[in-house]
Amino acid sequence: MSRLDAKRRHIVSFTLNGAPAEVEVEPRMLLTDALRYGLGFTGTHVGCEHGVCGACTISIDGAPARACLTLAVAIEGAEIRTVEGLGPAPGRLGVLQAAFRRHHALQCGFCTAGILMSLDAHLFRHPDPSREEITEVIGGHLCRCTGYAPIIAAALEAAAEMRGDTRGTGEAKTSRTDGHA
Amino acid sequence: MKPAPFDYIRAESLDEALAALKQYGSDARIMAGGQSLLPMLNMRLAKPAVVVDVMRIAALASPAVEKGSLVAPAGMRQAAMLARPGLAAEVPLLSLALPWVGHVQTRARGTLCGSVAHADPSAEIPLCLVALKGSVRLRSAKRKRSVAAEDFFVGMMLTDKADDEMIEAIAFPTIRPGTGYAFAEVGRRHGDFAIAACAAVVEQGRMRLAVGGVGDRPLARDLGALDGSALDDALNAFAWELGAGDDVHATARFRRDLVRKLGRQVLEQAAERANRRDAA
Q1: Which of these CATH numbers, 3.30.43.10, 3.30.930.30, 1.10.287.130, 3.40.50.300, describes B7-52?
Q2: pLDDT by residue (tens digit) across B177-220?
Q3: A26 in B contact zone (CB under 8 Å)
Q4: Do A51 and B38 touch (CB under 8 A)?
Q5: In this complex, do A65 and B105 lie within 8 Å of one another by their Cβ atoms?
Q6: Whole-angstrom Cα distance, residue A74 to residue B46?
């Protein structure tokens, strides 16, 4: 048993986007704040702080989860992925991110990091998702800009691209200028 | 929107968790997946002095099938249950209701027992447990006891659990021959709190309806073998007895109407499924 005192800071060790990471936190610190303030990973956004809006969604041990409903001390030893881990290199977009850009699947961008993380986890496990599956996954997110339709289109196109199947992706294919080859 | 300070205990065994509860009583809170507790901490509706994390207790992770029951221990996540091969054949009602629990992103962390401990009146897992006449297994440092789900939930977010007890597991009765099950829910959006949720069990023509989101806890009624207007009358009486209230999401009148209409719909669906199983 380990007992962590409320008034002290404790070191939590985990894997962040494939690299070992450590952060010093009080037991009450949320994972959102540990990532943002403790480690400077500000890609994870903070919206409602009670699990409803989905902006803070990250991947914990391969499954999408709310960082705001997770204590930083509880992720000792876990594999964490954040939106910073999606791009192949600094300043480059991943396949899913590039599809979002082509489809205008974001406007203000506040909800985007969370949605990307949910979709990334889903596409990894389900490379050929139906529209209904995508709708179910993004049902756990609030977006007040897009009306969701372009997000669904982007997700389906990214899935097709990752499968190596570019048939039926339509006009977006020709306008692609970024992302990796 | 940040939790008040607390000591954090990472329990490695059930005994360690129970010892902490014995020592701190109502000042301690058990944390499993945290999907109900963290909102309470963030909003400071709960300000425990000690949070006891039970997710590292290996013995609480895996479900067990005992005679006539599927037993979900405190550390079993909702996503793990939903992904269980054959759940639809073991506890059909649970496999119908689990997709309505929160979202993919909360089911990945949230546990079944945690939802039962939280006892939100609109929650689906407590509703299933009541509909199926399941039970809650409680444990403290000095004793173990099992409580029928219908006696466990005593009011809005109030349960029969004592301060030094934790839920060790919950037991869902498995499918019985000739029995049909159905579930339906109405909410503002999928994943929101239910305005009304109905779970039906029809066994040998005898109907049982459980309703969540309307009363202060999930409540069930055995309706016998009614049909036609007699069933409408019984559903109407049940709807009024639930003591529905008005809130920002729905009026009491709308909730009663959902009990009458959605209730009838799930009962008919469950009866049809029971018949199909009989024929098969």
Answers
A1: 3.30.43.10
A2: 999 999 999 998 888 889 999 999 999 999 999 999 999 999 99
A3: yes
A4: yes
A5: yes
A6: 18
Tokens of residue B141, six digits = 């440092």
Q: Compute CA distances A85 → A19, A116, B27, B175, B271, whole Å.
A: 10, 11, 39, 44, 50
Q: Is B190 on the interface with A (CB under 8 A)?
A: yes
Closest in B16, B104, B191 to A64, CB measured: B104
- Taking domain A10-85, whether its CATH number is 3.10.20.30 is answered by yes
Q: Looking at the complex, does the CB of residue B38 fall below 8 Å from at least one CB of chain A?
A: yes
- Over residues A38-67, mean pLDDT: 97
Q: CA of B79: how far to CAs of B91, B121, B239, in Å?
A: 15, 21, 32
CA distance B8 to chain A (A): 5
Local structure of A20: helix, strand or coil: strand
pLDDT higher than 60, residue A172? no
In CATH terms, the superfamily for domain B179-279 is CO dehydrogenase flavoprotein, C-terminal domain (3.30.390.50)
How far apart CA B222 and CA B201 sit, in angstroms, is: 9
Question: Does the beta carbon of B146 lie under 8 angstroms from any beta carbon of chain A?
Answer: no
Contacts of B18 in chain A (CB under 8 A): none
Rounded Cα distance, A157 and A162, in Å: 9
| Per-domain residue ranges of chain A | 10-85, 95-171
ipTM above 0.90, yes or no: yes
Using the Cβ of B186 and the Cβ atoms of chain A, whether some distance falls under 8 Å is answered with: no
Mean pLDDT of B92-104: 97
Closest in B1, B13, B31 to A49, CB measured: B1
Do the beta carbons of residue B182 and residue B199 sit within 8 Å?
yes
Can you tell me the distance from the alpha carbon of B101 to that of B108, in angstroms, rounded to the nearest whole number?
11
Beta-bridge partner residues of B179: B203
Q: Is B187 in the A-facing interface, judged by CB distances under 8 Å? A: no
Write b or e for each residue in A111-133: b if 16 or more Cβ atoms lie within 10 A of its Cβ, otherwise e. bbbbbbbbbbbbbeeeeebeeeb
Q: Cβ–Cβ of A28/B55 closer than 8 Å?
A: no
CATH class of A95-171: mainly alpha
What is the rounded distance in angstroms from the CA atom of residue B260 to the CA atom of residue B263? 5
Collect all residues of chain B within an 8 Å Cβ-Cβ radius of residue A134. Answer: none
B42 and chain A: CB distance < 8 Å anywhere?
A: yes
- CATH number for the B63-173 domain, one of 3.30.465.10, 1.20.1070.10, 3.40.50.970, 3.30.70.20? 3.30.465.10
Residue in B with minimal Cα distance to A55:
B105
A73 contacts chain B (CB < 8 A): yes
